[in-house]
Each structure stands twice: as structure tokens, then as C-alpha cells.
Amino acid sequence: MNAMKTLTTALLALALAGPAGAFGRLGEAGKLLDFGKRAAEASEEISEQEEIELGEGIAAQLLGAAPLVDDPALQRYVNRVGLWLALQSERPNLPWRFGVMDSDDVNAFALPGGIVLVTRGLYERLRDESELAGVLGHEISHVVEKDQVKAIRKAMGREWTVALAGELSQRSDNELTRRFGERAFKAGTEVLVKGLDRQDEYDADLAGMVLAARGGYNPFGLVGVLHTLDAAKPEDRNLALLFSTHPNAASRLERLEASVGTLLDGYAESGATGRLYGRP
């Protein structure tokens, strides 16, 4: 990306920024205030609409660091594959949106409420559509299980407790509720940098393979991606964030082999692979 910051560096800057800085970048005071009030009043659980707004706020920060690739046909293609897979999930009615970010980094992000972003660096390493389906299926599974929401709630600690919710609901202090909303968005960025629980990643691998099979794809596309990552050089700086936030590819492959065995072999024989957009 030449003189531009890498996505990893930009994300770290966002995560370390004070709440006021994060709020200034979002530039959506009304939405932030409303989210803070409603999320607080909802105690430890947030509604689907609040989950969607939380994801949109985090996406605004993420895309500020690395915008979408300027290729409408590519974005339509990835959305088509992603939406089809999302329809096979337990949350088909979310407003699912998929995109390819213009970054050399190799990574993918699932955000609350149904936003899934894949970096150009990862997309360019995929060999066929079944591998794309494996990646998207993995990320969709995180959204279905609300893994990010749970991690954000954990990162916020007492700010997401019933006690604070009660305090916020009884007060008309706009500054307090604004800070709550800011902190939720900032915590979301921190989760992207620190990563989810390792077990969440293992579970999403298996669930992603199942989603790919339901969608008619060869479910072992994700296995192909993991083999590609396993063969990558550890010093490749474009893999730094991925390697720091996920279990290593070898351990993920071992877990999948132990969990799946021959259960999905029939789907592999009949599942589609398909040509990847932008490849000869």
C-alpha cells in the first residue's frame, strides 16, 4: 500500500485512540447517543437493531482505515456468494452485507448485525469459489453466534452491567450515554485487534464448513485456505494481525480433522467449487 498505513497499524491506532477521537471519526452523534441509551436500558442483552447499529459503527471505523476495493463487479460477486450462504444460516433475515477491503493484509472480519469484510490480500490468495465460501461461512458463523457482541460486552466490563444500565436509564445525562456508545464502538475495534476466544474460532471453522455444504459448495474449501495459510512464511507482515488473533492454521486443521473425519466427504464429492471472480 506504499505510503499508506497498513490495516494493522490503522486498527491499532483506532483501538488506542481516546473515546473522543473515535467519536469524531464516526461523526454520527445522534446514532451514537441513541445506541448508548437503548443498549444501557437493555441491560446485558441488546436487540437485533442495536446489534446492527453497533456493527455499522465499527464498520465505519474499519473502512476509514481501509476502504472497499473500487470494483463494483467484485463487490456484487462477493455479496452474491455471501448472501446465499447467509440464507443457509440460523439468522437469514439479518441485513447481511459483504465487501472486499482495499488492504494487502490477509484477514477477514465479522461485525455484529451481519457485516462481513474480507481484505483484498486474503481474496487474492483464494483459488476458487469454494474457498471464498469457506471464509465467508466462517465469518457468518461468528455473527450467528454473536461472538463479537459477547466479546465486546466482556471488554466493556462493568460498563455493560445491570447496575450501570439502571443508572443510565434513570439519568438524562447525554454525556454519560454518549460515552457509553463511544466505548461500545471502541471496544468493538479492540476486539478486532485482540481477536476472539480460540474456541470461538475453532467452532466457526466447523460451522463454516457446514454452511458451505448447505449452500452446495465443497465444504473443504476452508481446509484449502488453511493449508495456504499454514504454508505462508511467518515473517510475512501481511499475516501479522491474522496470526496474532487466530489459532495457528495447523492446529485449526487438526481440530477440523478430528471433528469432521469423513462426515462431509459426500458433500465434497458433489459440492461446487466454481471459478473465482477476477481469475482467468
From TrEMBL:
Keywords: Hydrolase, Metal-binding, Metalloprotease, Protease, Signal, Zinc. GO terms for molecular function: metal ion binding; metalloendopeptidase activity. It comes from Arenimonas fontis. GO terms for cellular component: membrane. Residues 73-258 form the Peptidase M48 domain. InterPro entries: Mito/Outer_Membr_Metalloprot, Peptidase_M48. Belongs to the peptidase M48 family. Binds 1 zinc ion per subunit. It comes from the Bacteria. This is M48 family metalloprotease. It holds the Pfam family Peptidase_M48.
